[in-house]
Amino acid sequence: MKIVYLIPGQMDDAEQRRRELLANKFVHPDTEVHVRAAPEGPISIESAVEEEMSVPSVLRALLSFGHKYDAAVLGCFGDPGLRAARELAKIPVIGPAESSIFFSQQIGDRFGVLVALERDIPTTRSMVAGYEMGHKLASIQPLSIPVLDLALDESRTKTELTRAAKLAEKDGAECLILGCMSLAYMLADELVQDSASIPVLNPAKIALRTAETFAQMRFMHSRKTYPAADYEKLQKSIFKAELGPTA
Length: 247
Description:
It is a single chain. By secondary structure, this protein is α/β, with parallel strands linked by helices. It folds into 2 domains: about 1-95 and about 205-235, Rossmann fold (3-Layer(aba) Sandwich), CATH 3.40.50.12500; about 95-200, Rossmann fold. It has 10 helices and 8 strands. It has helices spanning about 15-25, 50-65, 80-90, 95-105, 120-130, 155-170, 180-185, 190, 205-215, 230-235, and strands at about 1-5, 30-35, 70-75, 95, 110-115, 135-140, 175-180, 200. The strands form 2 sheets. It has a 4-stranded parallel β-sheet with strand order 2-1-3-4, sandwiched between helices. The chain has a 4-stranded parallel β-sheet with strand order 6-5-7-8, sandwiched between helices. Helix 1 (about 15-25) links the parallel strand 1 (about 1-5) and strand 2 (about 30-35). The chain is globular, with a radius of gyration of 18 Å. The model has no long low-confidence stretch (mean pLDDT about 95).
């Protein structure tokens, strides 16, 4: 079984390799995870602008090499382009936020999200509302550390995670979700597991395991919910390079 973990933007080769090594530890030994960065896009996603601008490259990447895999994971907690990706792809496409939010309901009734910056709060709140889970959201707490700086000072990040976790619990959260894939690949859930009094969910682990389950059970997203894209029409317009006559 092969899963592609698609970074919706730029990432250097060394970091891709590091994440790929970790990702393969999250799944069964017989499952192979490839971490691939989209050819274009932002260097990190910390705004709706960057999120929206990342989507075209994600879709083009899925068309270019998605057929080589059994499932795909969108490597951003904002699940950029998830609905479009599911219409376009012929394999299951998993969003880390969606899979983690619904997984959290098997852990506790109300969840909190730990995000990098204060500006991430409204976009996260809007995303949760889009999944019709706003009534289960207890708290969104920022670490006040930019995404690209999270791994530069692990001690500071751990301190802020611990502080934010306590505030979220005070707000009524019964479990926590790491709202950033850079935190996920810092294994921030393990960093704070001893200091947090409620479960901390890692969206990279959950999304990859969900993708693995979809592939193992041969599930595909319902075409009633995600109608198949009109490949013939798209080949004539916005995906001329990616879609051939046999796509």
